Amino acid sequence: MNLPFTYKLHTPSQMEPGKKYPAVFALHGIGYNEEDILALVEDLKEDFILLGVRGHLPYENGYAYYYMKEYGKPERVRFDASIQLLTSFIDYASFTYPIDPAKRYLIGFSQGAVLSMSLALVLGDAIRGVGAMHGYIPAFVKDEYPLKPIADTSFFLADGQFDPIFPVTIGRENDEYLRQHSSSVTYTTYPVGHEISPENQRDLVKWLHQDSLKGGEASRGAS
To answer: Domains plus CATH for the chain?
Structure first.
């Protein structure tokens, strides 16, 4: 398979034959790379399969999954393409590695958060949970995309009290919208700007660990 993405993989050092593991697909912000976002969940590397996915487009000293007309307005053609490419990548990774299809998680910062929440709406219960930090859901995703139910998808939402790019009002909109569709939403505002604080990181790791221990026996749909 000719993959559109470069990615970094961490697997538990002592993997049990025949065992399926929870997985985190980590999406970085614009101008960053897979190493930056993957570092947030390094503490889970003995219990999860971790995949840091590098954006396929160059941007300044890093990468992007799509470009923007302006903040809050993605370039639609490239955004749509990234949703399709990331969906295919999740399918590929789930087939290639011993990933539990009932415990697939997306985490993302900024642009990665935008994509993570959007992918959850598109893939429905094929995604167990989403950790979205400092992002939003584009209006065209809510209004024009074919959306699937996310009642059983868990969400960890985080934003910054002093974020100059995505103010707290956007975080509240995410919370309100997702609570209408999901039965499990955690939302926290941290006293930071457009960044992930150590406290945010600790809370994210704790949430992923605890959520992965819940049930999961019932099979979720493949993406």
So the answer is: 7-212 (3.40.50.1820)
**Count of beta carbons in the 10 Å neighbourhood of residue 146:** 6
Q: Is residue 192 within 8 Å of residue 161, measured between CB atoms?
A: yes
Q: Is the pLDDT of residue 219 over 60?
A: no
Cα–Cα dist 176/49, whole Å: 31
Question: Tell me, what's the pLDDT at 222?
Answer: 35
Overall average pLDDT of the 95-113 stretch: 98
Q: How does strand 129-133 pair with strand 154-160? A: parallel
Q: DSSP assignment of the chain, as one string?
A: ---S--EEEE--SSPPTT--EEEEEEEPPTTB-HHHHHGGGGGGTTTSEEEEEPPSEEETTEEESS-EEETTEE-HHHHHHHHHHHHHHHHHHHHHS-EEEEEEEEEEETHHHHHHHHHHHHHGGG--EEEEES----HHHHHHS-----TT-EEEEEEETT-SSS-HHHHHHHHHHHHTT-SEEEEEEES-SSS--HHHHHHHHHHHHHHHTS---SPPPP-
Question: What residues pair up with 63 in beta bridges, in sequence order?
Answer: 32, 58
d(CA 189, CA 132): 12
Residues across the chain? 223
